[in-house]
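Journal club side-thread
Mid-discussion, someone asked how the predicted structure for our own chain would compare to the paper's figures. Pasting it here so we can look after the session.
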Amino acid sequence: MALVNIKIEGQAYQVESGLTILEAARKCGYNIPSLCAFNNGKCSRASCRVCLVEVKGARGLVASCVYPVAEGMEITISSQKATEARRASVELILSNHHKNCLQCEKNGHCELLEVSKLVGARDHMYEGEQTPSTLDTLAPGLIRDTSKCILCGRCIERCKEAQGISILGFENRGFKTIVSPVGNRSFATSPCIQCGQCVNVCPTGALMEHSEIDKVDAAMKAGKKVIVQTAPAVRAAIAEEFGERIGTPGTGKMVAALHRLGFYRVFDTNFAADLTIMEEAHELMMRIKNKGVLPQITSCSPGWINYLEYYYPEVIPHVSSCKSPHMMMGAIIKSYFAKTHEIDPNDIFVVSIMPCIAKKYERQREEMPNDVDAVLTTRELAKLIKRNGINWARLPEEEFDDDLLGEYSGAGVIFGVTGGVMEAALRTAYYWLTGKEHEKIAFESVRGLEGVKEASLDINGTVIKVAVTSGMSNAKKLLDDVKAGKSDYAFIEIMGCPGGCINGGGQPFVKPLFLPNEDDNILETYKAKRASVLYSEDERQVVRQSHNNKDIQKLYKEFLGEPGSEIAEELLHTTYNANREKFPDVK
């Protein structure tokens, strides 16, 4: 790419042509205050006017998030005119913003507050017209509070970009403008897939997950045997909540913290990921052998399942009947574990720590009653740890409880990244078809963060063509082909969030303007950094294939019999239903 010469604050720099001033400034070591920088510094609206700068020769101040650099451009960030304008923009936003920061769930992570400090904004400088606000708490996963919304539009763009469904938009005009589903509906009465990507990019507390910490507190107080499980992706991000760099492994300290929080058992959902592979790979083999419906599509992501039921009900026969791993784990804890330990299942309370907001909805599905009792996000776990005075930095490294459900394989670990479920399934399918382990174990062809990946594998003369995708915008083309009967894949992995669970709606917020300088390009790499935590843990495992997990083998020998057995079908499988009729305006 061609380079252009520019000056920032009188200093000469060479930067790539095509960058916005905001992007170029970051690359040159300047942080221009902004409320739209989550998407690599790009903004399609330039509505907040917080990133105004002076450009020599331009008429007035320009919004650096949309103004491209050009040869010979001279940019001034610190002039009195630009500084005062940025401050006034933030003060105007504050004039119509919810005032009680102490009660805001985003306290400590609020980008508006951070920007206010940067520009020196003064509160109550302007009094905006206060319009009636909407507090939407009906959906299982999401809360929307328009009194905290600053109309930046980031959630609108994210929903459109990541999922292609545009659930959110601007409603009304002038001072009455709000962001909402059409007609100011609740998320509960809209075809929202509950993924939480809108929450990840909201700079304030206008969009948040439903907290279930109170349910866990109540169960502890009632004397329940509260058993916790943690998803693979949580360990890849939890350390960020305590000031550690993105990509810092957090497994051992996370387990130590959970022990100190008083849980009866601390288990790893990786065990159930291995269990999922046993059932899902068996299902795939049966479909291939019996000329069943292909391609088979994975069912681990509840956001993707919601999308399926709303937008592609015709594709339901292609989807694996397997429950997601944490729901399988809940079912096994309340059956096999309870029976073995002579515990009344009614006395057990299962808590899932997940990177996903949609799993709050999933646990309440009538098709999967009582498997899991509460779901906390990675962020909620961090709140619990901090609330209980646990010093993360001083925690030792501890192991998950090894009590029937303790062992897990490297295949289970990589479930948290796009392509991980596919790779784990292929490791076991390869063994079942050939009678030997794959010599390299890893299937590199399905790794990577591209929107769609495909591979063809010749396994003992059986060619299996597979595809991997994440984010519904990417999945749509694959699904259109399946719906039209044009897909030649045998197996498709779909995850609801771009990049997979490592980028789930319940993961720690990534605030690009306030990261250390060495992490300047973190918006392009943070998913890769989190993924590397999981791949590294996979490589360190002695057992890297689900079918070689000794505890899984014991579970089948003592309780389930074999994959696809009657009891396995009862406990580990489910059904999905067309929900399009609920929303006749869905196309």
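Post-session note: The radius of gyration is 25 Å.
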